[in-house]
From TrEMBL, chains A, B:
DNA-binding span(s): 32-51
Keyword terms, alphabetized: DNA-binding, Transcription, Transcription regulation
Residue intervals of the HTH tetR-type domain: 9-69
Entry's Gene Ontology molecular function annotations: DNA binding
Origin species: Paenibacillus agilis
Signal peptide: none
Lineage per the UniProt record: Bacteria, Bacillati, Bacillota, Bacilli, Bacillales
Transcription regulation among keywords: yes
Highest rank taxon of the organism: Bacteria
Pfam families for this protein: TetR_C_13, TetR_N
Protein name, as recorded: TetR/AcrR family transcriptional regulator
PANTHER family xref list: HTH-TYPE TRANSCRIPTIONAL REGULATOR YJDC, TRANSCRIPTIONAL REGULATORY PROTEIN
Length: 198, 198
DNA sequence: TTAATATTGTAACGTTCGGTACAAAAATAG
DNA sequence: CTATTTTTGTACCGAACGTTACAATATTAA
């Protein structure tokens, strides 16, 4: 027994997906509600009836980006293969996002963290949660590497994960800002070397 | 013999300095020309007579940020003290900018790189130039550390500098986005340890 | 002093902003 | 069927957007 009244003729998640890419490309302040209507195909009536405000739609877009992103990232870190292979693949995945993505270039979560975390505590919460989860997954794989001896010289998994986390985010920022592939390769090499030794 | 006509009653660089902070706080899209007039004390006539457009003022603001920033940064990297002390001080300087700055929090150059580098080739150029100069200064100090033996195990200065560069920018982004001091300390430790050994 | 010139503050320009009002449309419940 | 409910597209709201126009102002050159 479904609800009374005219049914919606769109999928909530599909709209959030599209809006996510619009915000990702143009930023929060840089895109208008009209842009969102154009890209999603919704009229303002539907858009405001469903989401209430631009800010609320943005939060849902960032939340969705976080959810799909953390799944992809942990899947890579927990996949088969050596620790070294998985970490290199992780960086490579980020590099594809920055240089070859059919989605917008760069990382929406970074943009949201810098543009909106200070203005919107909920956005801040999503970003912080994502980083905590990602860091935890990194600590796990570092522990594995230390246990098996793949990572030489005892250092704490927390320190290793913190380094890899920061280097990863710097990598993404530098890639997006400069589109410099040579630098990207050097960062990948420098990061891998710092963990696995010369 | 000065020019004919009514003289300006403001200093060009002072205005750029103020505008820099306004853009830094609110972002390019997030601040209006009225915001810039309010903060600088200039009327729209003067502002447009002097700079021509919001975009042009933004470029000058980013350029000025770059100039003052690269001086500060290279001064730290080239100061007296051990390589380790200088690198730790460099990270600490960034941390102060992110947590305790009386200026706006975070780094305008990162914001500019992410928000405007894709839209404005001149901004892209400033950001890329800054990063190249900073990386060169980092390579120099890494060479010194390798030469004196302060940095153990031979790795290339380029790889070391690339790692430090990316970790530094990730550090800044994570600090600004999450305001998490514990994480910041862990990143500092992880980064220093990865260069100087356990 | 007067002519020329540059800067100033203010008042607008047309456009776009985020958001709302509301009637037409499309479904279910009875 | 009719009544009710929900979504839809469109027209519109006042405010703010980046930018321009321009007369008043303040200076120097002659």
């Amino acid at each position: 027994m479904s609800k009374r009244g005219r049914p919606r003729d769109f999928e909530h998640t599909s709209i959030v997906d599209i809006a996510m890419k619009t915000f990702w490309t143009k930023g929060y302040e840089g895109c208008s509600t009209q842009d969102l209507c154009n890209d999603t195909g919704l009229g303002k009536g539907s858009l405001y009836n469903t989401f209430g405000s631009k800010q609320e739609l943005y939060k849902q877009a960032v939340e969705r980006y976080h959810e799909t992103g953390i799944k992809e990232q942990t899947a890579i870190l927990e996949s088969t293969g050596s620790v070294k292979e998985r970490l290199r693949y992780f960086l490579n995945w980020g590099m594809v996002e920055d240089f070859e993505s059919t989605s917008p270039k760069g990382c929406l979560l970074i943009n949201a963290g810098l543009e909106r975390a200070n203005e919107d505590p909920i956005v801040e919460g999503i970003v912080s949660r994502h980083i905590e989860l990602l860091k935890a997954a990194m600590e796990k794989i570092m522990e594995e590497g230390l246990r098996t001896g793949e990572i030489p010289r005892q250092r704490s998994a927390v320190d290793l994960a913190s380094l890899f986390l920061s280097s990863y985010y710097g990598f993404r920022v530098l890639n997006t800002s400069t589109q410099n592939r040579t630098l990207a390769e050097q960062i990948m090499n420098g990061t891998m070397e710092s963990i696995f030794g010369a």
